[in-house]
Queue: 2 jobs
Job 1
Amino acid sequence: MSQTGEILSNVNLKGDYYSIEFYAPETAASAQPGQFVHVKIGDDRGDWILRRPFSICNTDPEKGIVNVVYKVVGKGTAALAKTAPGVCCDVMGPLGNGFVPVPGTIPVAVCGGYGAAATFMLTRQKEKGVLLLGARSTADIILTERYEAAGFDVRLATNDGSAGTKGFVTDLIPQLLAENPGKKYCFYACGPHPMLMALARQLRSLGEMGQLSIDHRMCCGVGSCFACVVKVNAPGTADGWRYARSCSEGPVFNLEDVYVEE
Ligand SMILES: Cc1cc2nc3c(=O)[nH]c(=O)nc-3n(C[C@H](O)[C@H](O)[C@H](O)COP(=O)(O)OP(=O)(O)OC[C@H]3O[C@@H](n4cnc5c(N)ncnc54)[C@H](O)[C@@H]3O)c2cc1C
């Protein structure tokens, strides 16, 4: 499950976003949409002791390639952006429980920023779907060309109105549902926590199906250290919720299990 992960390419997509390809044949052979890899960047000193988790954006099982799309936000990702092809990063994965496609439904990916990487492999489904992508501005709109090339209908929302509808990604949902009354959708989401909470409330009130990737900061990535716990619904318990390890029980949870903060 842990492979040397030679970097085959590492290119800037735009701004702070990069697309990297690792040679990781075991991961490439079995990865499912929404699963992630835990990547060791650099050596064992200081800032680099902990691995960094990244969603598996795409794979080429025949060539053993795993593609990750990442945003530079701190020391680890900044170092990764400067790492040249040929260098090996230990790559652990595929890890976690991913999205489970629901046959007979139209897949709708609802994403914020790099979340669009987590849902990309859903485009392999027979039913072509929709990407609803939200961002602060055009600078954080990524991967739309890949989704369009895969046959997905791409719709955008930005907070500043610089691309698509001005507002939140959740604002795009009523219009989508109104266009095709009676169609069955399944919503697959990854993005910032407030976006996911708003989406969970909205999907519940609309009676729609959903699966949400709750990306929490994590350490071991395999369920041993409990650093990444999130609250999930637990009917029948005293409080009605319990802690779940987002790395091993998630990161993808069914909508009905997602604990929504009031
Ligand atoms: C399951 C999972 C999948 C992920 N997939 C991707 C992906 O496909 N592409 C991508 O760019 N990033 C992804 N991330 C987030 C990524 O792991 C972090 O951005 C990365 O670890 C930051 O490392 P760093 O050393 O650069 O930043 P640090 O120096 O560790 O932190 C810099 C800043 O980033 C914030 N940060 C760090 N980790 C997270 C996190 N998990 N969630 C929210 N904020 C965080 C910190 O609070 C801090 O403000 C994912 C995270 C998880 C848990």
Job 2
Amino acid sequence: MKPHGTQLSLFETRSLSDPFAVRVSPRARRLTARVHVGGRVEIVVPVGVNAHAVRDFVQRFTPWIDRKVAAMRCFVAPAEPVPPSIAFAFTGEQLAVEWRRGPSRRLERHADRLVLQAPDDSAARMLLQSWLKAAAEERLAPRLLELADELKYSVARVRIRCQRTRWGSCSTRGTVSLNCSLVFLRPEVVRYLFIHELAHTKHMNHSASFWRLVEKIEPDYRRLDRELLAGWRTVPAWVFKN
Ligand SMILES: [Zn+2]
């Protein structure tokens, strides 16, 4: 979007030297800051919110944004097209990846190896990415449903997405979306994210009542929430590279 007054005045007030974008969204109901992989910051602004309110918001959340930018930045390492191995902290699985160039596109799992055939780097990576999505669904969805059952929450649907910005989200209709990269995190941290999203089926916000509910189920949620945020660093770069 074109730079305008709001954006220029924001540049002056941020302590961060990085440029960031302001996007006015007709769908947004409140001000939000999004930090993308690599550290790009985007402030999403509902229609009709003035520059002053945006500036206040950015100032108030600067420490949070800076922390998140640092986390998201570490995460960008020069990517090998296909990694030599894949480790899922969630399940403890360690898989060697064997990649051969060839005319067909094929991916097979043999015990602790993934055998991959593809004509070029990007085809190989795409195969691996779609395998990851399916593998994540197989491992994460049943565990979320189990936990929901145990805690007496209802989940209408589980979706696996490979977003760059969020570990999970929850819709008013009870669809919980989980990031495929959760398989790279420890089970305890993933369980916390599950609890976080389940609590959102009761409170669609981060109000005090929301956090009280989270705390009731997981008293150690603060530590786990920090680990979750830092978790972007443990996600290998090939997951998102196009
Ligand atoms: Zn939340």
